[in-house]
Amino acid sequence: MKNNGNKFLTNDILKSSIVEAFKKLNPKYMMKNPVMFVVEVGTVVAFLLTLMPNLFGNDGSGNIRIYNAAVTIILFITILFANFAESVAEGRGKAQADTLKKTRKDTMARLIDENGNEKMISSSELKKGDVVLVNTGEVIPNDGEVIEGLASVDESAITGESAPVVRESGGDFASVTGGTTVVSDWLKIKITTNPGESFLDKMISLVEGASRQKTPNEIALNTVLVSLTLIFMIVLITLYPMANYTGVQIPVSTMIALLVCLIPTTIGGLLSAIGIAGMDRVTRFNVIAMSGKAVESCGDVDTMILDKTGTITYGNRLAADFIPVANIEKEELINFATLSSLKDDTPEGKSTVTLAKDMNCNVEKLEELAEGAEFIEFSAQTRMSGLDLTNGVKIRKGAFDSIKEYVRNLGGEIPSDLDEKVNEIAKLGGTPLVVVADNKIYGLIYLKDTVKPGLVERFERLREIGIKTIMCTGDNPLTAATIAKEAGVDGFIAECKPEDKIEAIKKEQSEGKIVAMTGDGTNDAPALAQADVGLAMNSGTTSAKEAANMVDLDSDPTKILEVVEIGKQLLITRGALTTFSIANDVAKYFAIIPAIFTVAIPQMEMLDIMNLATPFSAVLSALIFNAIIIPCLIPLAMKGVKYRPMSAQKLLLRNVIVFGGGGVIVPFIGIKLIDLLIAPLLMMIGL
Questions:
Q1: How many CA atoms lie within 13 A of 557 on its CB side?
Q2: What is the DSSP letter of 130?
Q3: How far apart are CA 223 and CA 219, in angstroms?
Q4: Nearest-CA neighbor of 524 among 540, 507, 551, 544?
Q5: What pLDDT sits at residue 210?
Q6: Which of helix, strand or coil describes residue 71?
Q7: 280 tagged catalytic
Q8: Checking DSSP bridges between strand 550-552 and strand 533-537, what pairing results, if any?
């Protein structure tokens, strides 16, 4: 999905956006945007004045009809441009949905029945719990879990990444998505969703829902804009009798133009587009946001709860060495460690066997010894795994404290140097797995994990903008402290259980902070639901994805860092364009008010900074600028203001200087240039 629609405006989006811009002229729709609805009402009144110039009494010169018509056309174009901005944002989302719909197609599936027989059926007939076989070149019919086999899968239809990924049974790479293609070998898959409930179906409905509900911040800003509009309407209502008192006759169409120029039409026309574009940017980053509020909340995040494994470190804790305890030969330790890992499909187990082979261990002989043995899987309760051999020997490998308790319960002794060796590994940031046969401890497997490069700098950037990072890990406090220091996080929770994450989130929220976290397992679901921003991995469990308000298609936990920056960018863009829009009003004030009143009140000539040709020229120049600035700002609203990590005070100062100053200077230049162009034309028609 990454590669789709990277072009800002395609021909299809342009055509559909133009059509939608006209459809949105319906007053029922326009009322949702009060600022632009006022412009539409003004357009209707100006149009009536074009047909009946004296509708509200004698309204000036004989050519006033032409002037009213010009005001009507410019106001109409202003509304179309505002509708066009929103339609472009929606069109980019709909284009993504259309691409995804092409991926969703009915295929034939090879159903495996209880007797192991194959039966070809339509993928739409598959039910949750069915088992299918997918061979090379075949499309995976629906979401599921790999229960047998290992294969390369092309997920470009979903993620946009052309490089195939490996999917295999067990571990973190067992989840597969319907619509992807097996490009090598085969997979036996257990279907986990019913037809119409797949992740692809949910993605399409979410992307199509880009016309989402307004977010709280957007509603608050809209309220401010409506308030400003009401204030300016009151000002104009009082201005009319004041003008009559000073002997200045202001045409009603000029009053309408003045109102439109002074109310914040620029941000009013772009506000919805900015919100929709924020969701669009997240989606193009291969993250599906369940709502605009989720994206907006990212911009307000104060605290990030991060799992160590997969987010801060690579997560593939691989065996790096075998460390025997006193009076134990290293070869003995290697043999027992290998036996405990022969049937272990986790990265730790596989890497232990690989390391043993590299150390010239006779793995084939050990495999013969392990024939018929019962494999004991790792569990969160026991925190150990291993084999029960047919000769009665029980071999286990697991966490230090769990193995100590296990050995003591069997009447064994704890080697005197075990604690020291465990601490040495922990100080290196590694994870020790203790190996035991029956009640005798033989030594440790040193599992090494690596902090991802560049994270120290990224955490520093987050610190600059006031975001605190907390690392959660199941490691002991010593290991956790070492990794936390190396990564540069602000705090850590060692020996962390799922309920500890929830408590950490609640503690931060009780202090009024907005919290973000990532997760992929069923045990992460409660914490993902509790967090203000919950990012689940696409490779994770269904419950995790349902609890979160964002899903990462690439299953990259570090992406939470980029998602937060996109949320910040959304808020910065909205603030910057609001500042620019309100600053615009200052320049338009100096364009119109002096031009109207200077003839009757010569003292106001000092405010006529632009020295525009005539009152009519001043009004029309300001109106034209007011219209064309909206499409000029659409690319900025879509792409967002460039994000730079800095404090809120520095950011506010920068916005005031760049967008506040620019919002004053640009209209002065633009309106003057437009005046120079249209003044001769207006003179030719007697205005």
A1: 23
A2: -
A3: 6
A4: 544
A5: 43
A6: helix
A7: no
A8: parallel
Candidates 285, 203, 288, 290; CA nearest to 2 is 285
Residue 543 CB neighbours (<10 A): 17
Q: How many CA atoms lie within 13 A of 54 on its CB side?
A: 4
Task: Using the Cα atoms of residue 572, residue 576, residue 577 and residue 578 in order, give the sign of their dihedral.
Answer: positive
Q: Beta strand pairing status for 533-537 and 318-324?
A: unpaired
Chain-centroid distance, C-alpha 163: 23
Q: What are 384-433's pLDDT values in tens digits?
A: 999 999 999 999 999 898 999 999 999 999 999 999 999 888 887 788 99
Q: What is the 3-state secondary structure (H, E, C) of 21-55?
A: HHHCCCHHHHCCCHHHHHHHHHHHHHHHHHHCCCE
pLDDT of 597 > 70? The answer is: yes
What residue type is assigned to position 274 of the chain? Answer: I
Q: How far apart are CA 386 and CA 436, in angstroms?
A: 9
3-state secondary structure of 300: coil
Residue type, 12: D
Question: What are the tokens at 348?
Answer: 């730790």
3-class DSSP state of 634: helix
Residue written as token pair 């603030």? 575
Query: Which of 130, 201, 307, 449 is an active site residue?
Result: 307
Identify the DSSP state of 558. Answer: T
For residue 541, the tally of other CB atoms under 10 A from its CB is 20
652 token code pair: 């506010």
Name residue 617's amino acid. Answer: S
Percent of the chain whose predicted confidence (pLDDT) is above 70: 89
d(CA 18, CA 29): 16
For 494-650, list the strands marked E by DSSP: 515-519, 533-537, 550-552
Of 495, 380, 386, 382, nearest in space to 435 by CA? 386
Q: What is the pLDDT of residue 211?
A: 42
DSSP strand pairing (175-176 vs 144-154): antiparallel
Helix, strand, or coil (residue 608): coil
Residue 400, token pair as written in the block = 């230090």
Half-sphere exposure of 657 (CA within 13 A, CB side): 6
357-374 b/e (C-beta count within 10 Å ≥ 16 → b): eeeebebeebeebbeebe
C-alpha to C-alpha distance for 163 and 393, rounded to whole angstroms: 45
Give the single-character DSSP code of 373: P
Which helix H or strand E contains 182, and what residues bound it? Answer: strand 181-182
Residue 264 identity (one-letter amino acid): P
Question: DSSP letter at 540?
Answer: S
**Tokens 């719990």 — which residue?**
129
Residues in Cβ contact with 281 at an 8 Å cutoff, skipping those fewer than 6 apart: 566, 569, 570, 639, 640
pLDDT confidence band for 42 (50 / 70 / 90): very high
Length of the chain: 687
Q: What pLDDT, in 10s, does the model give residues 300-335?
A: 889 999 888 777 887 667 888 999 998 899 999 999
Cα separation, 301 vs 565, in Å, equals 10
Q: Which amino acid is at 508?
A: E
> Hey, what are 533's tokens?
């921003």
SS3 assignment, position 323 = strand
| CA dihedral of residues 641, 643, 648, 651 (deg, nearest 10) | -50
590, 607 contact by CB (below 8 A): yes
Q: Does residue 172 carry a pLDDT above 60?
A: no
The residue written with tokens 């075998």 in the block is 322
Q: What is the largest CA-CA distance in the chain?
A: 112
SS3 321: strand
State whether residue 240 is helix, strand or coil: helix
Q: Do 350 and 341 contact (CB within 8 A), yes or no?
A: yes
Sorted by sequence, the CB contacts under 8 Å of residue 361 that are 6+ apart come out as 331, 334, 335, 338
For residue 381, CA distances in Å to 212, 398, 402, 456 come to 43, 11, 9, 34
